Amino acid sequence: MPWWLEVLIKSAILLFVVVTSFAYAMLVERKVLGWMQLRPGPNRVGPWGLMQPAADAAKLMLKEDLTPKTADPLIYKLAPFISLLTAFSVYAVIPFGASSTGATWAIGNVNAGILLILAIASIGVYGISLGGWASGSKYPLLGSVRSTAQMISYELAMALSFVGVLILAGTTSLDGIVNAQLRWWFVVPQFFGFLIYVITAVAETNRAPFDLVEAETELVAGFHTEYSGLRFGLFFIAEYVNMLTVSCIAALLFFGGWNAPFGLTMVPGVVWFILKVCCFMFFYIWLRATLPRLRYDRLMAFGWKVLLPVAVLNLIVTAIVVAYHG
Amino acid sequence: MTRKHLFNVGALLRGLSITFGYMFRRKPTIQYPSVKKQHAPRFHGLHELRRYGDGKERCIGCELCSSVCPANAITVIGAENAPTDRRSPGERYAARYEIDELRCIFCGMCEEACPTDAIVLTPRFEMADYRRGSFVYDKDRLLVPPAAGVGTPPDERPGGIPGDLGRVAEIKSTVDVAKGYSATWRGEVLKTQRKGLAIIKPPQEAS
Amino acid sequence: MIAFSILGAILVASAVWTISARKPVYSVVALLVNFATLAVFYVTLSAEFLAVIQIIVYSGAILVLFVFVIALLSSGVAPFSAGPNRLPMIWLPAGIVVLSALVFVIHAIAAAPAPPAPAASPGGPVGAPGVFGSVADFGKALFTVHILPFEVTALILMVAVIGVITLTSEHIPSAASRKSEAQVDREMREAILRGGER
Fold it and tell me: Which residues contact C187 (CB under 8 A, 6 or more apart)?
């Protein structure tokens, strides 16, 4: 089999898996949010509402695709695709498991995997900022300016929280990091790094309580106020795929990826990986149901004045410990 | 949010535990189309024009309901009964009887005003439709079909009121209503003050 | 070679678009394409780390600031005036001179005997440890051989940051006269109670 065909098949499978899990992540979010608010959640379409994602997709596709008069048509139409493209392309380097021979289940096993993820994620901000700007109205603009500042600020602390793990693992390739966690998960030695990562990941994906970008009480719907139909759907998919991505990264970097806990190796690694990712997705939803939205200046102050120093401190301590004991 | 609050991890965890606990609570939602809530016994829903036992219409086309209606939702045009084809026992009957259910506020005053208990409010409330025009109910849709009997007598509905309140129908105009009689809320009669006026106690909550 | 041609065409086209676009935002998008293509070039040259850093730093941080500024100044809607884009005729001969110099240099490089290929380069996957351009090698070189330029650059950036802060925040009140956070909070709460008049 030529390598490009292999990559193509893998990509197609992965795309299917990611889109399906996006659809059901959305359903689970609505269900769990409902339960936490003493509602049953969507349960009308299909048994237990299981066909709800399909109904949503059909609705979004049939809706009119509006372009405001004041919008910049080219950028306005381009922005959702930038968001979606960056959200999906991260999966090119994320490994999901390893077979018994040691080959990883990933499209591409890149050595600088974690750096590449950071790089692709840093492009994701363009979808939001350009989309907000190109809408040509004030709420999207405010939302996008906020999001740009927020994502850049929290990206720093996020990258620094990675570095502690990288120092411990001694490699930047994702399967190398996972293999380095055979003995114990990095959440133990890197607990503060993990905390910083969780907080920054919520901020990076613009989720509650850091969803200032689309704060409906003040900004209507933030950067996607003017978007409708399928273009809105693309932003929506991108948001949930990003959630999945950061959950995958959390599982890979801090919770041993597909390594089985407590020596329970009879369950295949992929199952463990998926379970870990699911736990993080649930945590996201749980946070959203619990915490109120932060005020914007406090969000920025928290990012720069608390998270960044703590991340740097964590990095320095880790480096010193590894230098003397590693 | 001062620094103290920002680092209050305990409060954060408590909040998380509360939402987690709520996830397993019983949900108060009533699954509406499949499960229906039992409504109050004197619920005011869609109107119905009743018949007598012999199939004759009760409505005599007096237009009292129309004039008492606060929302001007009722249109009645009466006509003389033809000697050969008597629609109602009296001299007149309603040639046209229309209720605009979009204007109706379901106060039940038509029911109070009717001297023959012809117009009643049924407990039916699912009236959704696609066109505005279809909310104007004409006589064909309001009148109980002959096969369905006489229709629901207002005082014999489940949880209804004693027949004693038949005198309420004696209220002839909105002036009487303005004097202090709450026409929409009928219950056990405590004391009859004047002809047609009663002080009433709200009905007990149905079990 | 085919990949090189295609990427080169994209690179040049996006560069031309960057300077010829009428709207600043289009320039930014073109520049984004340009940076991304450049990163791919770095990968083909097995400079993996450089490619990633190119995207993180240039596309992910600096260019975002461009978008930020454009969005804040809302100058993105108005196209550039025709004035500054029209160069005086004197630059035409200057351009020709520079271009011919470039062509000469490239020709000279192409004519020179090819340097011996790095020993580990053939065979090994791009970016594997020990292979030219890998993250580990890059980092090692940065912190040992090139430690002086690295630290000097850091110092310069630090100076720039401090300079910006001192230049822009002339009116930062001294610590003594600055209001405490609690005080600001209380004043805001009072202002809200007064109905926001202030």
Answer: C179
Judgement on whether residues A42 and A147 belong to the same structural domain of the protein:
no
Q: Where do the DSSP E strands lie in A220-306?
A: none
Per-residue pLDDT tens digits for B123-170 = 778 888 888 888 888 888 888 877 766 666 655 544 444 333 333 333
Query: Which residues in chain B are contacts of A298 at CB distance < 8 A?
Result: 1, 6
Which chains have at least 3 CB atom pairs separated by less than 8 Å from chain C? A, B
> For residue B63, what are the domain limits?
36-198
Instruction: Check A291 against B12: CB less than 8 A apart.
Output: yes
Average pLDDT value for residue range C83-102: 72
Dihedral angle sign, alpha carbons of residues A283, A288, A292, A293:
positive
Q: What is the count of structural domains for chain B?
A: 1
Q: Given CB atoms, is C182 within the 8 Å cutoff of chain B?
A: yes
Domain with A170, as residue range(s), is 66-325
Do the Cβ atoms of C124 and C130 come closer than 8 Å? yes
Confidence of residue B192 (pLDDT cuts 50, 70, 90): very low
Going by pLDDT thresholds of 50, 70 and 90, the confidence category of residue C196 is low
User: pLDDT digits over B15-71, tens only?
Assistant: 888 888 888 888 777 777 777 776 666 778 888 888 887 878 888 888 899 999 999
| Interface contacts (B, C; CB < 8 Å) | 4
Alpha helix ranges (H) inside B119-164: 139-142
The whole-number pLDDT of residue B189 equals 43
Domain-located, residue B23: no
- Please give the DSSP secondary-structure letter assigned to residue B194: E
Residue B154 maps to a domain: yes
Could you tell me if A31 and A15 lie in one domain? yes
Q: What are the structural domains, with CATH classification, of chain C?
A: 1-74 (1.20.120.1200)
Asked if A130 and A250 sit in the same domain, the reply is yes
Say if the Cβ atoms of C71 and A72 lie within 8 Å.
Answer: no
pLDDT of residue B105: 92
Residue A236 CA to residue A26 CA, distance in Å, equals 9
Residue position matching structure tokens 């992540």: A25
Residues of chain A with pLDDT under 50: none
Assign residue A262 a region: left if phi > 0, alpha if psi is -120 to 50, beta otherwise?
left
* Chain B positions in Cβ-Cβ contact with residue C181 (cut-off 8 Å): 2-3
pLDDT of amino acid B184: 37
Is the CB of A5 inside 8 Å of chain B's CB atoms?
no
| H-run or E-run covering C95 | helix C91-111
A75 and A40 within one domain:
no
Greater model confidence, B87 or C75? B87
Q: N- to C-terminal Cα distance for chain C? A: 67
- Label residue C35 by pLDDT band (50, 70, 90): confident
Based on the domain organization, do A36 and A83 belong to the same domain? no
Instruction: Collect all residues of chain B within an 8 Å Cβ-Cβ radius of residue A37.
Output: 22
Instruction: Return the C-alpha torsion angle B15, B19, B20, B21, nearest 10.
Output: 100
